[in-house]
Please model this.
Amino acid sequence: MKKKIFLLILFLITISKTHLLSADEAKMAKGLEIFNETAACSACHMLKAAASEGNIGPNLDTVEGLTEASVMDIVTHGLGVMPAFGEDEILTKEEIAIVSFYVANSVQK
Model:
């Protein structure tokens, strides 16, 4: 009986992790689309995961301490010559969250 309960719990954990992985994969795919197309971040930024070679803004693969929260703040409010994608309503809050997730999880460490 204990073995069956253990196997059931293991099975449920495996399913939940698989679901989370597929959700993250979908979020990463959408983030790539926003990065390269919708927001055109790739025109200014280099990011190997996105095969982008922009050289106006910083190379995102080499920025120290890049987190999802820091990306979200900069994308929302802008920095230097970078526009405020949130304040100027270029991207929705959801799109900013997705592209921030993508960038933070794509940088070469």
Observations:
- The first helix runs from residue 2 to 38.
- The first strand starts at residue 46 and ends at 47.
